[in-house]
């Protein structure tokens, strides 16, 4: 299991939370009995659910004890548990299932999504956001640098970046699994990242997510060399603007499916 660093992830808390807020805003107003946040991390999205549905019984599942510790301190009334979101059974008994930027980490997220949809009670809702940035320079260059002879053997066991489908693909998938209605869409966010002295803004962003599995298998010296090579590639792909900030386009896929 790759490690999560709550501090690194929180460096861009505002831009990372905006898609989650957009997802929660699209949830239908219904009298849900119980909600669950799959891949809840530090509880930021769970807090949005608490604000939107104040009286709702909430639970959160994540595979990072460090993230769950942060979440538990922020929302002591929520049932946060350590678990694998690849197990659809963990969502049993919940009629609102929400997941923000988590399912793309699974080896077969489509199978899990189908099972979650099929297991919802009538009137239940499955709402998910996943990044679809695997073709962007940030992720393409990461794969290219990782494939260089110097590091390729070290990364032989790293799954790397798993692709996410188009919104229409998920609409078809969930309809086949029993959804009566699916609202699916994509949004392109353009984040203006602040300068990062002795680093690169996009590198600092990716260090909190896609870079984690790679850095986990390198020692300190090898990690420093790998980051230097990746940073050089990013500097060319994402030049600084006149004010020093770097524009970082990021596409995300959403869907809200009703049983």
UniProtKB/TrEMBL annotation:
An individual GO BP term: methylation
InterPro entries assigned to the protein according to its UniProt record, in alphabetical order: Methyltransf_11, SAM-dependent_MTases_sf, Trans_acon_MeTrfase_C
UniProtKB keywords: Methyltransferase, Transferase
This enzyme's EC code(s): 2.1.1.144
Residue ranges of every copy of the Methyltransferase type domain listed in the record: 37-127
GO-annotated molecular function: trans-aconitate 2-methyltransferase activity
SUPFAM superfamilies, alphabetized: S-adenosyl-L-methionine-dependent methyltransferases
Domain of life: Bacteria
PANTHER family hit by this protein: TRANS-ACONITATE 2-METHYLTRANSFERASE (PTHR43861:SF1), TRANS-ACONITATE 2-METHYLTRANSFERASE-RELATED (PTHR43861)
Protein name per its UniProtKB record: Trans-aconitate 2-methyltransferase
């Amino acid at each position: 299991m790759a490690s999560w660093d709550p501090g690194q992830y929180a460096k861009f808390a505002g831009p990372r939370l905006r898609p989650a807020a957009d997802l929660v805003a699209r949830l239908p107003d219904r009298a849900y009995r119980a909600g669950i946040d799959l891949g809840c991390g530090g509880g930021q999205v769970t807090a949005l659910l608490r604000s939107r549905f104040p009286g709702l019984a909430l639970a959160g599942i994540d595979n990072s004890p460090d993230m769950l510790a942060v979440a538990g301190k922020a929302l002591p009334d929520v049932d946060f548990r350590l678990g694998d979101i690849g197990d659809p059974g963990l969502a049993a008994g919940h009629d609102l299932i929400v997941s923000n930027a988590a399912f793309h980490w699974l080896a077969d997220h489509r199978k899990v999504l189908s099972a979650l949809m099929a297991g919802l009670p009538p009137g239940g809702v499955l709402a998910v956001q996943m990044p679809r940035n695997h073709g962007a320079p940030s992720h393409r260059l990461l794969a290219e640098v990782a494939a260089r002879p110097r590091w390729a053997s070290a990364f032989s066991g790293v799954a790397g970046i798993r692709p996410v489908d188009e919104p229409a693909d998920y609409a078809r998938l969930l309809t086949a699994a029993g959804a009566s209605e699916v609202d699916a869409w994509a949004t392109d966010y353009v984040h203006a990242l602040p300068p990062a002295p002795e680093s690169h803004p996009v590198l600092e962003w990716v260090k909190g997510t896609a870079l984690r599995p790679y850095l986990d298998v390198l020692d300190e010296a090898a990690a420093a060399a790998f980051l230097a090579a990746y940073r050089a590639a990013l500097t060319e792909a994402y030049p600084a603007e006149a004010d020093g900030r770097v524009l970082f386009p990021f596409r995300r896929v959403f869907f809200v499916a009703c049983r």
